[in-house]
């Protein structure tokens, strides 16, 4: 096993994501002990099969940036294929924007923020490539791996769906030489919005607090991986006290499991696979008549909406329509890492917690569900939310246009994702059915 870490906290004037709809640039400061980190874990089984997991404290990484990173890593021989690499994002709302999705102009309202974001993105990609390069070159430490799953009741379902999965997955590496802990990889599903809202101070939020506490108490590196938190908020939020309370409770769960030492062996061999699916929108954007109807709706918004962010989004949509450049679908990467005793399911985008609940209920073997993995370009809500609309669903009063005040606006989507017919939940040609179908294929092979 190899572990490396780097502080990637930017300086002043870098555009910050997580909250809209006005300009928010960093003041160059960061919360002590919760500065932004990127960390890399390199795992190799007895046959030499290597997987590389990178996690970073940013709001999100869009698909174009993810593809840039993984292409460079494969070309350099640092990973054998995209299926052997995970790029996980903590989703801290007090981190820098990366790439063009969310659209910096739509979210923040200043075209200058696009160029500033591009500048940070280029340096961030170089940071990640150097991090993996350094990790692959480091001297390996022979370890045994074990998996356990605890609980921490930190989140509430902001869509009132009746669940907030408390799972705390923990992968513990112990040195073969002396049996002592060497590193801890852990996760949980909860939006990192504990820190006071919309400040200009960088902060890794409760995820960074939990990692720092685990490291302080156990004396080993701790890497946090976000779960399916699309509809999950912390029960306590908006203050420094909330960061400490939530982070410390998560750390308590992790440390208790390590000290209890009731882990199942994870001993390979490793098997990996990944699949990219195309999620359809509620409007057939290959149909010229449908596109024209959408154009008229966006023109009306551009002319009359009282909300500046909604007008900016409409401007972007009208430009894409004029250039026949609207996306026809939303690509989504679904990935499986079978480590031999533990399967990691890595899902792109901001998936809602129903996907976690449904997948865990259908698969009895040890399973760690990660989200915000590889690339984040949208919310991916399940049918229960797509049917009724709202922030995560991406529509309000018209299911055929991105809704004002919803995530579809910031993520530059032309329309919400396609819901199943109400009498056919999980329909195979709609968003939920396509996601669950890909999950089944990967987990059943």
Question: Would you write up a description of this structure?
Answer:
The structure is a single chain. The protein has 445 residues and is of the alpha/beta class. The chain has a domain at 2-266. The protein has helices at 63-75, 104-108, 112-137, 205-218, 240-260, 288-304, 308-322, 353-362, 383-386, 407-410, 431-443, and strands spanning 2-7, 37-44, 50-56, 85-89, 143-151, 155-157, 167-175, 181-188, 222-226, 232-234, 264-266, 271-280, 329-338, 343-347, 350-351, 367-370, 379-380. The protein has a 5-stranded mixed beta sheet with strand order 9-8-7-5-11. It has a 4-stranded mixed beta sheet with strand order 1-2-3-4, with helices on one face. Strands 12-13-14-16 form a 4-stranded mixed beta sheet, covered by helices on one side. Helix 1 (63-75) links the parallel strand 3 (50-56) and strand 4. The two termini are 26 Å apart.
Helical stretch tally: 11
Topology pattern, helix = H, strand = E? EEEHEHHEEEEHEEHEEHHEEEHEEHHH
For the largest sheet, list the strands in their spatial order.
9-8-7-5-11
Largest sheet: 5 strands, mixed
Q: Count the strands?
A: 17
Distance between the termini: 26 Å
Low-pLDDT stretches are none
SSE layout and pairing:
Elements lengths: L1 E6 L29 E8 L5 E7 L6 H13 L9 E5 L14 H5 L3 H26 L5 E9 L3 E3 L9 E9 L5 E8 L16 H14 L3 E5 L5 E3 L5 H21 L3 E3 L4 E10 L7 H17 L3 H15 L6 E10 L4 E5 L2 E2 L1 H10 L4 E4 L8 E2 L2 H4 L20 H4 L20 H13 L2
Parallel strand pairs: 3-4, 8-9, 14-16, 15-17
Antiparallel strand pairs: 1-2, 2-3, 5-7, 5-11, 6-10, 7-8, 12-13, 13-14
